[in-house]
Amino acid sequence: MNTNDIQKETAVVRIKKGAGRSLKAGGMWIYDNEIDTIDGTFENGDIVAVEDFDGYFLGRGFINTRSTITVRLLSRRRESVIDDAFIEMRVRNAWNYRKEVGDTSCCRVIFGEADFLPGIVVDKFSDVLVVESLALGIDRLKPVILEKLKEVLAGDGIQIRGIYERSDAKVRLQEGMERYKGFIGEEFDTKVEIVENGVRYLVDVKDGQKTGFFLDQKYNRLAIQRLCRGKRVLDCFTHTGSFALNAGVAGAREVLGVDASQLGVDQATENAALNGLSDRVRFQCADVFDLLPQLERQGEKFDVVILDPPAFTKSRNSVKNAVKGYREINLRGLKLVKDGGYLATCSCSHFMPPELFTKTIREAAAGAHKRLRQVEYRTQAADHPILWAADESYYLKFYIFQVCEEK
After folding, report:
1. Which of 159, 163, 214, 327 has the fewest CB atoms found within 10 Å of its own CB?
2. Residue 267: pLDDT above 50?
3. Which residues are catalytic, by number?
């Protein structure tokens, strides 16, 4: 679709007096209960103007009345026109930022709201792009975004071999959209080899979780390497083996990676072989919540325990149950760490704020009768920037602790 078809808004959304506090603080969302009136004609997915209760211009974004997030802002400038040049500017800024802050051989090139393109994520795995589109308005802009991204990358000598779409998340249903996955353009082998932190992986962009690989933990994986040389390591919720393999390439004596998904374990085993680590890094398909107590009863101990669980909460309503899950898994993990060993633990849900996650770990340590010395606290990699006032962009909390016995 040509952006000229959707750039000229014919409707104005006016918010209630006293509403839109998040938006005015720098956020990019307007919720349905903040809207007073919508004047003019529009179709869901169209660009609309947004005004305060008194007519003061607040920005321009796309509307979808089927979504609780009714408007997602694209620009706050009155003079901005949402056309090809505007999209190219956003895409080029996103790519230039990645070039400045980290490794671009595999990285998140566009991170939705944090790159001022709300509702879309694009990951780059070597010469392949994987796109996830989660909002109706950005879905209409998706062809232009991808076209401009390929042009910007080509300007740096990067030729994209293919694009795969992974817009199969349930959240699309809340936007009145169908879940979808498939090729955009020419088909290609969907197992893509990448190198990250000196570790080789085969990324399954078609059937892997999310876009195929969790790039946000890139430098957290690197951070645990120095702790693992010559050590015995347990990696829980290993997915395709990324933390376990970082421990392996760092010279760990023995590594056990555990995941409940047989597909994940098979991919992790394949990745271990790819790195020549099959003799020291092995994987087991098991429920971590069942396995850890079993290892404790067997008297097993590890120098390093890594906990990288999936998001136990994806809504505010389930936070209380999530706290129980995080507390239990950290308590069990702590009991398996040797005196003076290390625990790396994280949460990837933005509904679990840092303060609550920290409190939960403290409670787990008390329950396990362990003392914790914080080595470092980290968040997601810089290619997943945290946009202040857009709380959803800050989701990954990652701690490394030394675990000490009471003496």
Report:
1. 159
2. yes
3. 348
Q: Read off the DSSP letter of residue 399.
A: E
CATH of domain 214-405: 3.40.50.150
Q: Is the pTM of this model over 0.70?
A: yes
Work out the number of other CB atoms within 10 angstroms of the CB of residue 363: 15
User: What is the dihedral angle through the alpha carbons of 19, 24, 25, 28, rounded to the nearest 10 degrees?
Assistant: 100
Which of 4-18, 172-186, 349-363, 391-405 is the least confident region? 4-18
pLDDT value, residue 5: 47
Q: Are 97 and 118 within 8 A, CB to CB? A: no
What is the phi/psi pair of residue 156, to 5°?
-100, 15
DSSP code string of 61-117: EEE-TTSSEEEEEEE--TT---SHHHHHHHHHHHHHHHHHHS--SEEEEEEGGGGT-
- Which of the pair, 313 or 287, is modelled with greater confidence? 287
Instruction: Look up the CATH number of domain 84-192.
Output: 3.30.750.80
pLDDT band for position 48 (50/70/90)? very high
- Cβ neighbours of residue 37 under 8 Å, at least 6 residues apart? 13, 14
| Tokens at 302, concatenated | 């590890």
- What CA–CA distance (Å, rounded) separates 238 from 261? 9
Distance (Å) of CA 192 to CA 103, 204, 207, 269, 375: 17, 7, 12, 16, 34
Q: Which of helix, strand or coil describes residue 356?
A: helix
Q: What pLDDT, in 10s, does the model give residues 97-153?
A: 999 999 999 999 999 999 999 999 999 999 999 999 999 999 999 999 999 999 999
pLDDT of residue 7: 57
d(CA 260, CA 257): 11
Per-residue pLDDT band at 315 (split at 50, 70, 90): low
Strands (E), 225-296: 232-236, 254-259, 281-285
Choosing among 2.60.40.2250, 3.30.420.10, 2.40.50.100, 2.30.130.10, the CATH entry for 9-75 is 2.30.130.10
DSSP designation for 135: S
Query: Which residues make Cβ contacts (< 8 Å) with residue 130, sequence separation at least 6?
Result: 122, 123, 163, 164, 165, 166, 205, 211, 212
Q: Which sequence spans correspond to the domains of the chain?
A: 9-75, 84-192, 214-405
